[in-house]
Amino acid sequence: MVNFSLKSQELGRMLETNITKSTFQFLKSLQKNNNRDWFAEHKKQFNAENEATRSFFGHLLELLSAHDEIERLKVFRIYRDVRFSKNKTPYKNSFSASYARAGLHRRGGYYVHLEPGNSFIATGFWNPEKDDLLRIRKEWELDVSELEQIINKPQFKKVWGPLTGDELKTAPKGFDKEDPNIDFIRKKQFVFTRKFTDAEVLSDNFAQEINTSFKIIRPYFDLMSSILTTNLNGESLLD
């Protein structure tokens, strides 16, 4: 069952299919005036842009749900947690949301970040748990050919570019630094990112571009889901 992070009354009307100029104008103004007094004076505008953006995220959820099982849409709050941060500005300069796939056999997730001059989508595995990370590394130690076949396809590379994420400078403990697959084994994250210009975000086909991009990632998700739900002998861990 999909868990919408939208008010129930929003689901009964037409969802926003585009991001508008006014949304980015508000975020640009917020970036220049990131303080509580300014925000309070412009709270009505924030509420309107926040509602429109949440509606857009709901529209994207409908698109994704046509080809994937989505368990939860989470729309992130604009308020920053400054307790442990050197940056004490109280608000984010962006709107963002994540989409969690449903079921233990579906791994990976989707993320959308809307910010003037820094909009992007991301997908993959941000911080795998210790056991999952070891399982992935053990798989790459055996063979990376299927992974390389997927991520080196021209259409995949054109949309997503290379595999990114934090990595170790050398081999993790228990692995050979001379392993021919060490460039994959030493990774700690397995992420793909696609950036968008402001003009692309404000175009009429932005939601479709996101949806198409996430469709293209599916073979990668299918492979990783298979790895993370089986042992090295290919036996299911879900039974």
From TrEMBL:
Pfam families assigned to the protein according to its UniProt record, in alphabetical order = DUF2461
> InterPro entries per the record?
CHP02453, UCP028451
PANTHER family reported for this sequence: CHROMOSOME 12, WHOLE GENOME SHOTGUN SEQUENCE, DUF2461 DOMAIN-CONTAINING PROTEIN
State the protein's name: TIGR02453 family protein
Q: Which organism is it from?
A: Maribacter sedimenticola
